[in-house]
């Protein structure tokens, strides 16, 4: 089980004074201290871990966020930023000696600039809310996580979220142009804007995917895209998962970049079909959903090419959508695969790792062996085009030992991803879930260098401590001159 930092007695002793100060900053119902009312904030989407925070504060202005962080910086009180709480890695797990900074009231769309193809919003606006604000003009926001109806753009930035269309149009980091953020000491800064690239260091890229460790986002400018002339989805079924994986690699190798290229195995597609009635074939072991978009003539041509590649790899079922309603239905099953899994298991543990596409078939075989070893079923749903896997480990938390087996199974899957040349996460972040596996991918020097970045933004280490880093060093320790094998770096430089 994941262990969190021991609560600081000095911080707990300040609770009443801190709560009083927070109420002065956010009057009315903006501060929650009742244990029962704080239960709504005790976990995020990784529900296996729960803790009640010291307090919850719900600001509604950037100035309030600044004053809250300045107070916590001066008092050395830990802060956990929280969006909609849909994170699946425990990134918003509270700390018993810290406050939760809920950003749900930052829910306004501030500017729609169709000429520059940008939208500026507050971080509590939902992912889907951006598309709905501009779809009347034929535009949309490309990153589309399965939780897009609920997840917020601020949380998307924290985790660098993707979605089924990220293969062609990029993840959050490829679609964010500017940020307003509050640093841990309360300073308000702006990064980027409506222009394509900002000068100087890529601090915007650094913030995207930083998991709430470096600052609190209070405003976001994103790029929007014009809706393609035509978009059609093709369902492709295979007798084996390996054939499906090989077909994915062949489609990309042919120089085709689909708008989306997703894959589900037999347990996942059947659960999704029972849940959504999307029209999926039940007699296949793997199902690809390949979306092609662009001019109608190009789309029709590419459907023929992709279908030919699929047949060469043993496809037994091929069906292209004939209407927009049918295309949406094809995707509805995939986007609801996670909740659909709740119909076939009391609990499931959703993993997130990324591998090279060429390793897909091998990794799927190894996961099946692990499934038999641990005695737990697994349903596979993943962004096949970019190798981002989302295995759903099915278990029953009421059966002693099953949660622990599910965690061990998940850890082995992530270690396998690194072993074949992949990484620990694609879009869910590290949080607490993968924190203690970071040293399987990074050595001590790598981790210390990452922590130096943390220290540059947050020297007092009040923002989201206990997440991402297996062992968090004090900033003073990381600031010392580094000696490696008895030699200083850059020995020719004078030392003072």
Automatic annotation (TrEMBL):
Q: Does the keyword Transport apply?
A: no
Q: Which UniProt keywords apply?
A: FAD, Flavoprotein, Oxidoreductase
Looking up Gene3D superfamilies in the UniProt record yields: 3.30.465.10, 3.30.70.2740, Vanillyl-alcohol Oxidase, Chain A, domain 4 (1.10.45.10)
The cofactors required by this protein are: FAD
Q: Is the keyword rRNA-binding assigned to this protein? A: no
Q: Where is the FAD-binding PCMH-type domain?
A: 49-227
What is the protein name given in its UniProt record? Answer: FAD-linked oxidase C-terminal domain-containing protein
Q: Give the species.
A: Benzoatithermus flavus
């Amino acid at each position: 089980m994941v262990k969190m930092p021991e609560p600081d007695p000095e911080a707990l002793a300040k609770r009443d004074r801190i709560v009083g100060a927070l109420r002065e900053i956010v009057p009315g119902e903006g501060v929650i201290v009742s244990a029962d009312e704080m239960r709504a904030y005790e976990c995020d989407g990784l529900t296996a871990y729960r803790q009640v925070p010291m307090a919850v504060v719900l600001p509604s202005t950037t100035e309030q966020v600044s004053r809250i962080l300045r107070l916590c910086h001066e008092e050395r009180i830990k802060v956990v930023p929280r969006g909609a709480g849909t994170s699946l890695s425990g990134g918003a797990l509270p700390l018993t000696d810290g406050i939760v900074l809920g950003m749900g009231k930052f829910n306004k769309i501030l500017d729609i600039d169709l000429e520059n193809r940008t939208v500026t919003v507050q971080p509590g606006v939902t992912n889907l809310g951006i598309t709905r604000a501009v779809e009347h003009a034929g535009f949309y926001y490309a990153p589309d996580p399965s939780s897009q109806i609920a997840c917020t753009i601020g949380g998307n930035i924290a985790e660098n979220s993707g979605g089924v269309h990220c293969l062609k149009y990029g993840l959050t980091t490829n679609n964010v142009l500017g940020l307003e953020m509050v640093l841990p000491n309360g300073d308000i800064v702006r990064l980027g804007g409506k222009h394509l690239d900002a000068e100087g260091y890529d601090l915007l890229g650094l913030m995207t995917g930083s998991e709430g460790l470096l600052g609190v986002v209070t405003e976001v400018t994103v790029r929007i895209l014009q809706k393609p002339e035509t978009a059609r989805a093709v369902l492709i079924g295979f007798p084996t998962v390996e054939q499906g994986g090989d077909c994915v690699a062949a489609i990309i190798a042919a120089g085709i970049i689909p708008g989306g290229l997703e894959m589900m195995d037999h347990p996942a597609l059947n659960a999704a079909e029972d849940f959504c009635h999307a029209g999926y074939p039940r007699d296949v072991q793997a199902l690809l959903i390949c979306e092609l978009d662009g001019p109608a003539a190009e789309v029709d041509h590419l459907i023929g090419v992709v279908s030919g590649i699929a047949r060469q790899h043993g496809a037994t079922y091929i069906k292209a959508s004939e209407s927009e309603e049918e295309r949406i239905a094809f995707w509805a099953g995939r986007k609801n695969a996670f909740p659909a899994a709740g119909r076939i298991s009391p609990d499931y543990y959703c993993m997130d790792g990324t591998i090279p596409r060429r390793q897909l078939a091998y990794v799927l075989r190894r996961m099946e062996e692990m499934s038999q070893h641990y005695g737990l079923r697994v349903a596979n749903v993943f962004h096949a085009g970019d190798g981002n896997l989302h295995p759903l480990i099915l278990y029953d938390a009421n059966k002693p030992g099953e949660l622990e087996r599910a965690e061990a199974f998940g850890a082995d899957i992530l270690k396998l991803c690194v072993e074949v040349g992949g990484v620990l996460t694609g879009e869910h972040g590290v949080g607490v879930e993968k924190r203690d596996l970071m040293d399987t991918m990074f050595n001590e020097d790598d981790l210390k260098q990452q922590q130096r970045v943390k220290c540059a933004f947050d020297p007092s280490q009040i923002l989201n401590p206990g997440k991402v880093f297996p062992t968090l060093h004090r900033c003073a320790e990381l600031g010392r001159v580094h000696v490696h094998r008895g030699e200083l770096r850059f020995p020719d430089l004078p030392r003072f």
